[in-house]
Amino acid sequence: MKNVFIYYLCLLAPLALIYWLYDYYEISSDLLAGIIIIYLLAYKSYLDGRRLVAKNILSRNEIWIMIIPGNHLRFFKELYLD
């Protein structure tokens, strides 16, 4: 996932889907909070880890470290600017 456009599309499309579910189906705020937490902890961490693996910054075994708070800032330039 070296292409920045594809990365941002994969990053933002689930947020649009979450907003659509919240608006169209009027899901409860508890369920919305749970979905957002899963998005932030699981999906975004995995997606960022996969991007760093594709750029040969991390190995496949190190994807899990992206769930630790602060690692997104450590790799900010590689994730969002390159």
Automatic annotation (TrEMBL):
Q: Which keywords does this Swiss-Prot/TrEMBL entry list?
A: Membrane, Transmembrane, Transmembrane helix
Domain of life according to the entry: Bacteria
Membrane-spanning residues: 5-22, 28-47
Q: What is this protein called?
A: Uncharacterized protein
Q: Which organism is it from?
A: Zeaxanthinibacter enoshimensis
